[in-house]
Amino acid sequence: MPRGDAPAELILEVALRLFARNGVAGTSLQQIADALGVTKAAVYHHFRTKSALVAAVLAPAFDEVARATAAARTVPDLAQRRRLLVHDLAANAVGNRAVYAVMLRDVAVGAVLAEDSARAATAAFDELHALLIGPDGTPATVVRVGMFLSGLAAHTADATLATMADDDLRAGIVEVGEALLGPW
Amino acid sequence: MPRGDAPAELILEVALRLFARNGVAGTSLQQIADALGVTKAAVYHHFRTKSALVAAVLAPAFDEVARATAAARTVPDLAQRRRLLVHDLAANAVGNRAVYAVMLRDVAVGAVLAEDSARAATAAFDELHALLIGPDGTPATVVRVGMFLSGLAAHTADATLATMADDDLRAGIVEVGEALLGPW
DNA sequence: GTCTATATAGAGATAGAC
DNA sequence: GTCTATCTCTATATAGAC
């Protein structure tokens, strides 16, 4: 998936839209090709397998997670670190709702991640998880972190959130983050 | 799906386990039949379509939601109503993790619900949503409710929560509910 | 880089014997 | 109530022409 390849970029956009709406397993390459007005073979010219296409669709989100994790890693104070992560994650999740919906909610993504060209992605996510929890591994804290992360994709299953303006949704997520992981 | 039909009950259990692990779209009737040690035709004798099987798997959870909604409907005070719903939902979600995971996280369920033998189920869920929000429809409140509900299935995407003891997880969910929707 | 055509496998679903 | 066998359709994926 070369940089700046317009056809490939277009495939990724269309595929993401369909993955978010119907799930990865519920979206065939035929549907993607139809939505693009090309044939399946044209799609296969850009991505060797469906799995590679899924990985390419998710890659930007994984990169964002990796960047947020790297930034948070350098903040020793737990409260400040959580504040940074909550703000980053809220902005990222709202800024690209569809990819976060697929990444956080679609069970089929697990299979792609296990395929282990994506081990870096899972490692970054695990580290982010640990950075949010901090040294206190009590069940109460673990549940707070888990429910906050899960809630980053709440807009997918909630019609009211789905149509909410970006600013309101982002502010709401930050507020929830502070209620659960603050004060900071 | 007759009551007390042992084979049908067994099919539902096995199907739920596979749906929760691999998603509805990622689970074929062949896989379900193999896990049961029977053929596809035997499964089709109990459920006319895959969609009917999915609906039957989810029915107990929809009934629980309907009961919790009916109970909450009679509580006029918002704080007390939220307290009741948070406790009910936490107990239900932890008591049957797999079915809540499928119901809240699987995009393929949306298609089954749209099929509209299940309109009662969506109506109950919509009312529950409204009962949790109350008269205050500000974005902040809507996001709190949406993220809490989404978080009821957090155990699916979080290995630490997946292995957490029922009591700890339920208490954690209640605590998150109070932090987001309390005090009561 | 996109096409037609096809290989192969598996999906959902049904018929009819036992 | 379960089986074998089969239908039809669609899935992923590939070969090779243009």
Automatic annotation (TrEMBL), chains A, B:
It holds the Pfam family TetR_N. It comes from the Bacteria. The keyword Transcription applies. Residues 5-65 form the HTH tetR-type domain. Residues 28-47 bind DNA. The keyword Transcription applies. GO terms for molecular function: DNA-binding transcription factor activity; transcription cis-regulatory region binding. InterPro entries: DNA-bd_HTH_TetR-type_CS, Homeodomain-like_sf, HTH-type_TetR-like_transc_reg, HTH_TetR. Keywords: DNA-binding, Transcription, Transcription regulation. PANTHER family: HTH-TYPE TRANSCRIPTIONAL REGULATOR BETI, HTH-TYPE TRANSCRIPTIONAL REGULATOR RUTR. This is TetR family transcriptional regulator. It comes from Salana multivorans.
